[in-house]
Amino acid sequence: MSDPERAVVEFVLTAAVYSDREDLEPDDLPPAYRAVFWEDGTIERPLVPTSEAVTNATGVERPWSAVSGLMFTDRDEFSNAIEFTDRNMAKEWLQKRIEPAELLENPTLAAEFEDEIEGVSHEQAREQVRPARADRAWIDSLLEEYFAEEEEEEMLDLVEIRAPEEVEMTLENLVLTEDQEAEISKLVKAIEHREYLAQIGLREIGKLLFVGPPGTGKTSVARALAHDLDLPFVEVKLSMITSQYLGETAKNVEKTFEVAKRLSPCILFMDEFDFVAKTRASDEHAAIKRAVNTLLKSIDEVSLIEDDVLLIGATNHPDQLDAAAWRRFDEIVNFPKPDGQMRADILRVVTQEMDIDDFDPKGLAELTEGLTGSDLRLVLREAVLDALTEERTTLTQQDLEDAVANFEERDNLKNLDMIEGDHDALVAGGTPDTGDESGGHDHAHDHAADHAQD
């Protein structure tokens, strides 16, 4: 906020109104305000607007100096809290300096002003402000309540939990196929109308399987959904299910689903789902097979309609899934490698913050047939780094075309047959038949490409 004086008055007034009105809940506080008042998973009244709290919530470095000249402000020397000597005067002062649209970003003040300012609705403000359940502090408090400290550490080896605010990706940042957009649209409607679906008995909904090659956006779309829908994101890599304590593995699977239900509404994202079929068809340890059976049973028992848990599985190898795995999902979403138009669109999105002379995304898309969105990001990264070695922050179309050629050349090294005894091909400085002399760099690239984020 550009006006420090107004920012401090708004924060202090919000704290005062919230403290007095028992009908208001944490969802009525703006997320930045909630963050400074969470304590042990709750926000207790009265809210004390200390100078430190004001600074952390608004970014105003010296809040008392900003408002000390106003007739209605005072400071408690003991608590260092900023107070109003006349709240009505503070309200009138703020009302002259704040727009209705800005009040809709603060449900507490929207509730206070909705009968006084046209266009201000408490209900509307609640709808557009991120709910408290999406806050990191709220998520951590639930985990602490559910797990002992050692159990929580073990659990976090199996799952990764992100608050929506920690997910930087949004659906607007992604280029989707028409089918993907249609499935996401249906999903959003299902979440909005959960009560209706339960009423008509349609409960088998909200279990999606994302299928497609690595780098085509499966993980990114799942995380972006969490961000856009303000849902906690619980991510499980099923290969991590093989705990060193094999007897605990099935129990950990049950805990994973219990975590998702406790954090609900949330998204439970299970990557590497082909691991399930591979384990069922192999001679794996009996404890691992029990864990997989527990997993399949838990999938059957979790529900978007009853538990508010949206389940998304992802696999790079749909051919390895058996019938038991397929029938757990009510929707299959295909993530193919992008076509030429999609590649051009991806390039436009990813380069929005870059300065590129004579940029021709369509021309570049024609040179990148077969590359995924993740590959295109790697190409752009290399182009940027190469330009920086020449002390340039403005790229050219030629830089990008050269990066594509270098990417393809390095990628081809993956297909080389390493002949036994051909040590030169494995040693930095060795020269393979292709004439590429950057062996060490290529190995690093292969490693990065193999682990590129979806």
Architecture overview:
- With 454 residues, the chain is of the alpha/beta class.
- The chain folds into three domains: 4-129, no CATH class; 134-334, P-loop containing nucleotide triphosphate hydrolases (Rossmann fold, 3-Layer(aba) Sandwich); 340-450, Helicase, Ruva Protein, domain 3 (Orthogonal Bundle).
- Helix content is 50%, strand content 10%.
- It has 23 helices and ten strands.
- The protein has helices at residues 4-20, 31-37, 51-58, 63-67, 87-95, 100-103, 107-113, 122-128, 136-146, 149-158, 178-192, 194-199, 218-229, 249-262, 274-280, 286-301, 304-307, 323-326, 340-350, 361-367, 373-389, 397-412, 439-450, and strands at 73-76, 81-84, 159-162, 207-211, 233-237, 266-271, 309-315, 331-334, 355-357, 394-396.
- The strands form three sheets. A six-stranded mixed sheet has the order 3-5-6-7-4-8, sandwiched between helices. Strands 1-2 form a two-stranded antiparallel ribbon.
- A hairpin with a 4-residue loop joins strand 1 and strand 2.
- Residues 418-453 have low confidence and may be disordered.
Total tally of structural domains: 3
Query: How many β-strands, per DSSP?
Result: 10
Structural class: alpha/beta
Strand content: 5-15%
**In terms of per-residue confidence, which ranges show pLDDT below 50 for 5 or more consecutive residues?**
418-453
Can you count the helices? 23
Radius of gyration: 27 Å
- CATH class wording of the largest domain: Alpha Beta
CATH fold descriptor of the largest domain:
Rossmann fold
Approximately how much helix is present in the residues?
40-55%
What does the overall shape look like? globular
> How far apart are the first and last residues' alpha carbons, in Å?
35 Å
The strand order across the widest sheet is 3-5-6-7-4-8
